[in-house]
Each structure stands twice: as C-alpha cells, then as structure tokens.
Amino acid sequence: MLETALHSHLAARGAVHAAERGVVLPRRFGDDPAAEYAALREGAAVVDLGFRTVVRATGADRAAFLQGMLTNDVASLVPGTGCAALLLTIQGRVTADVRVVALEDALLLDVDVCARAALVEALEKLIIADDVELGEPSEPLALIGVGGPGAARLLPEGARLAPYAHAVVTLAGVAVRAQRASEVRGPGFVLHVPAARAAAVWDALVAAGARPCGMEALESRRVEVGVPRIGVDMDGATLALEVPVEDAISATKGCYLGQEVVARGTARGHVNRRLVGLRLEGPEPPPGAPLVREGKEAGRLTSVARAFGAGGLAALGFVRREWWEPGTELRVRHGHAVTLARVAELPLA
Fold it and tell me: What does the alpha-carbon distance between residue 329 and residue 89 come to, in Å, rounded to a whole number?
C-alpha cells in the first residue's frame, strides 16, 4: 500500500487515514469534515494530493510527440503555461487524464497514481524514432492542493496566472511550482513541492490560514461539481465524450490518438450514455450499483458521497440517453434495499 510523502507528518497532526485504491490518504482531520468542506468552498483549504504523481517527458521531440497523443493542444504551450488533457485509446476510450506543465527543457504530466503505468506503457509503445524519454522528475515531488477563494491570498504571486499556467513561488523558504488548477474546478493551485520539504510547506500554509482538508470533504465537492476521476468514473470502457471533460479536448488541433472517434461523436451530436449528477434519497448504495427505470437497467452509479453543499447523499453515474434529462427519477437496486436517484443539473451545489 502506497503512503504519501506527507503521511507520517499528517498522522501526527490528527489526520485519520484510509486506504483508497492502493494509496493511504487522509480521510479527514478531526471529526468535522463539514468544516473542511466549508474551507474548500468559502475559505482556503490545503489537501494532500498524494493520489497523483508526475511523469517527466524530455527530448527534442517531446512536444510534437505528445501533440499526436494527447487530446489538447500541447504544441502551442510555451514555458510557464499548461493545460488539461486526456490520453485515449485508438477507440476513443480514456486511458488517463493529465495536467500538463510546460518547462524550458521538459513537459511534466501530472497523472493519477493508478493510471501512471498505463499512461507510460501506452506512450512508450508509440515512441518509434522520436527523441522522447519518459521518466521521473529531476527530484521526488509531492503534490499539494490549495483550494478555495482564499487560496490567492496565500499565494499572491499566483493570483494573476491564467488557468493551468504556473510559476515558481517561495513557501517556507522552499521553491515550489504553483499551477493554477483544482481537483474540483474551483479557485486554487496545485503545488509541485520537493518531497523532502513537503512537511515544511504544509505547515507554512496551515500557519497562513489554510485548513487541512481530507478526502471526505474533497470527494463531496468533486461529486457535487461533477469532476470525473480516472478509475472511478472513467476508464478504458469510457468514451471521452461520455464524461464532462470539455476543457481537456481541443476542437481545433490536428490528429491525435482517438481523434476520429471524438470527431465522429461530436458530428453526430450525441452519445448513448453520459455521466450525470444524481441526488439520492434512501439508504446509501455502493458505487457500481445499477440504476433502473420501468424495470429496465438505465445505467449505473460510479461515485457516491455525502454531499455537504447539496444537503444529502449525491452521486455520479452513467445514464442512458432516454433517461438523462434533469428531474428523471430512477431507482438504485442494492441488496434488498432500493434508493431513489433523481437526475440533476451539475453542479449540484
């Protein structure tokens, strides 16, 4: 089981940890995850993003090669900029989602730990005569999220950054790369921190007013907003157009892996199923439970969370086209229990 660079430091400061898809992460800090959620939405929250890691792409052909692989316009990036992107299969299905950071001598790919091996394996198979090398960052990194409307106060140098742009800032005497990005599509930054100094940076952010925030609060907001997570809400069976990832797909760049399928689906104007938000009433169902309408399977749940902003249980799930209109009532079957699921517009709160 993988422990994050901050594991011991946060455990000593009250973090309640739990294993999640092979990574031990802070579930909450203390007994008030609703207050952590409030900091994420209304103040400033600091989050251990140890479920993500960084792949470093170097070589003279790195931009041209990744331009033909990823869904966004990597070739247009200059040092100091970045973007969101997907790696698809040739069938247009999702292998990984990445945040790209353009440096003078490299491109950094911020990817979920669970998707790293699949990303690297898929890309390396397609490196033929290209001058490209995929490897580890020049030093071990820890990723820390700073989210909420108060995040800019903690990192004033980053306040003027465009979305996905980045700059080096100093925290606790440590040079840290701050990219304007968020796990929950809100205001905030993802920090690339030397792993050996991650504890000092964390403590400096807390001392400056950021509240530690665990996965329970983060997942609550992620589900409310409708941000799909790789391996949970999208995977190798998911078409890119079935999930809300519009900012990761360029409509104007040239060919990339899976582009024909995306273009065909875009021209057709619809897909047969889509990831939607759902408000739940009744016993909490497990992810993966089927959604039913009029005795027919209408889809399945992918993520379920206690949604602090939405005021109850909420979920993300795939629903077939004939039943995805907001207000449609479905049933979730799990064991002997039945839960009402009502399709709702995203964000839920």
Answer: 34
* Neighbour count for residue 172 (Cβ, 10 Å): 16
The stretch 176-194 carries a mean pLDDT of: 97
Q: Which residues of 101-133 are buried (b: 16+ CB within 10 A; e: fewer)?
A: bbbeebbbbbbbbbbbebbbebbeeeeeeeebe
pLDDT at 314 (0 to 100): 98
Q: Are 179 and 190 in contact (CB under 8 A)?
A: yes
- Going by pLDDT thresholds of 50, 70 and 90, the confidence category of residue 270 is confident
Structure tokens at 92: 């247009």
H/E stretch holding 172 reads none
3-state secondary structure of 258: coil
Percentage of the chain modeled with pLDDT above 90: 93
Residue 326 to residue 344: CA distance in whole angstroms:
5
Question: Which alpha helices (H) appear in the chain, and where do they start and end?
Answer: 7-11, 33-42, 62-67, 113-126, 151-154, 198-207, 215-225, 259-268
Tokens of 233: 């809400």
**What average pLDDT does the structure give for the chain?**
96
Q: Beginning with the edge strand found earlier in the chain, give each strand of the sheet holding 107-112 in spatial order.
A: 82-88, 94-102, 107-112, 52-58, 133-135
Count of C-beta atoms within a 10 Å radius of residue 233 = 24
| Nearest in space to 239 (alpha carbons), one of 175, 165, 318 | 318
Report the alpha-carbon distance of residue 175 to residue 210 in Å, rounded: 19
pLDDT at 141 over 90: yes
d(CA 122, CA 323): 35
From residue 205, give the alpha-carbon distance in Å to each of 218, 305, 330, 335. Answer: 18, 27, 43, 45
